Amino acid sequence: MYNGEAIRVVLLEGVSVLALNEFKSQGFDVEYLKVALQGADLIEKIKDAHIIGVRSRTQVTAEVLRACKNLMAVACFCIGTNQVDLDVAAELGICVFNSPFCNTRSVAELIIAMVISLSRKLFDRSSEMHQGVWNKSSSGCYEVRKKTLGIVGYGHIGTQLSVLAEGLGMTVIYHDIRKKMAYSKSQQVPSLEELLAQSDFVTMHVPETPETKMMIRAEHFAQMKKGAYFLNASRGSVVDIPALAEALKSGHLAGAYVDVFPSEPKRNSDGWKVELQGIPNVIMTPHIGGSTEEAQEAIGGDVSEKIVSFINLGHTDGAVNMPNITLPVRGEGVHRIVTIHRNMPGTLSKLDAILSSHNIIQCNLGTQGPIGYVMHQIEAGPSTESLKEEIDQLSQTINCRVLF
């Protein structure tokens, strides 16, 4: 395994202390910061790092990646990886890991809370109370029982939300680009238009892809029931915010909750503006869908374990920009060599030729687009340093590591 003292880790944005402790337990040299860094400041801080850990605010651009000559992995302590240039990272042999499932419960619970809050106008009543206004009124306030919740995107968050909503007595329908098994009594509808027309509440739970960019526009709000509510805690790029504001101002929609926005500040800002500000029964939060202590601890443990497995064993299980490759450890007298390479014909045969002086016990190869990842286990023999030097000289090789 790698010498822990040789691995330098820089953790930014106050990621879970659980991750800090995991890396320290491996003997890694860890620097822990609570702030996000950008551009030249980020490069200066991580230029010698082997691992960097970020959340959603730090932008790991192509310029940043190319400036970091020792970088082996980027740990994204969040669901998304939009903040990292994944193609350039793969080109440079840098593995990117995230945690796509650990905060699903936190997001699902938040949506349930917002559904009830919108239906009862709780935030408006609370704001009025803070201003000294006692407005005890039931006008336009409703129970959520027997109302229809339409879920767009029936993945890990959507399915958990489905179960919670049914527990409140709601009817649940969902739309997804693939056929999905329904949880409990929920039903899949064949089109987005049908979901919009039937739902009292529409909530978005889709990833950011070219297909989902601006997928909800003015014509879609017009297809929703008059008096319905719209919620988005997925990605800011999927909704036309000015069109949503118009649908609310016209009275067609009764309220909205938005946690994610097309443009979000890189740091806390008093000057941030959006078209939804000042509209009654509109709840906005600053991208906090997964921001619970439980979710951040779970993400910290999940991502740090993946990084440690990658550094010590070469495993890429959970990497978003590399083939997912693992091999069981075979014990004493075995060397493990991992090679990230350009996906070109004949690469494996060239690698096997270099390793032919050893008995190859196991080999696992995978490719993803232009990148290949191969792991060899060989019986111990002549110096493995000479093998690494030969592999490094191949035109296909991006980088090679001898782990043990």
TrEMBL record:
Pathway: Amino-acid biosynthesis. Residues 112-289 form the D-isomer specific 2-hydroxyacid dehydrogenase NAD-binding domain. GO terms for biological process: L-serine biosynthetic process. InterPro entries: ACT-like_dom_sf, D-iso_2-hydroxyacid_DH_PdxB, D-isomer_2_OHA_DH_cat_dom, D-isomer_DH_CS, D-isomer_DH_CS1, D-isomer_DH_NAD-bd, NAD(P)-bd_dom_sf. Keywords: NAD, Oxidoreductase. The keyword NAD applies. GO terms for molecular function: (S)-2-hydroxyglutarate dehydrogenase activity; NAD binding; phosphoglycerate dehydrogenase activity. Residues 10-321 form the D-isomer specific 2-hydroxyacid dehydrogenase catalytic domain. The keyword Oxidoreductase applies. PANTHER family: D-ISOMER SPECIFIC 2-HYDROXYACID DEHYDROGENASE CATALYTIC DOMAIN-CONTAINING PROTEIN-RELATED (PTHR43761:SF1), D-ISOMER SPECIFIC 2-HYDROXYACID DEHYDROGENASE FAMILY PROTEIN (AFU_ORTHOLOGUE AFUA_1G13630) (PTHR43761). Belongs to the D-isomer specific 2-hydroxyacid dehydrogenase family. This is Phosphoglycerate dehydrogenase. It comes from Vannella robusta.
